[in-house]
Amino acid sequence: MNFVNVFKMSGVVAVIAALGFTLAAQANQDDHVEQAIVERIKPPVELNTGSAAEVNRKPTAKEVAEGLCYNCHQFGGLGAPSNRNEWSKRYNARGMNGLLNTALRGKGDMPKKGGAVFLSDSEIKSVITFMLKENKVL
Q: Is 65 exposed, middle or buried (0-12, 13-18, 19+ CB in 10 A)?
């Protein structure tokens, strides 16, 4: 092999190496894009596919509040009460029955039962009680 052929061969190797690095970088970027898409479209609540007892278990008031209600009530989104002062005003004006009726019917952008239509009225009351206690209203 003469010098020219060696030079050409090293150029080919360099091009192949550069192509390999480019493809690897693209694949890495594709992985990040795919991960971002998966995160964006995953459901807010994961399905439990465990035993029948686990699947049929009702979520606790804390689980419902943290998994559903706090999407708005933690930061006051769409006018939702989110701190002790706001909860106290509503509780003092309406009482537990008033808050419960509002939650059961929905109000403004909050859907009926806050979207947790699978819960009974008493379970919704437990969630409201949990949030009131968390905000030191009760």
A: buried
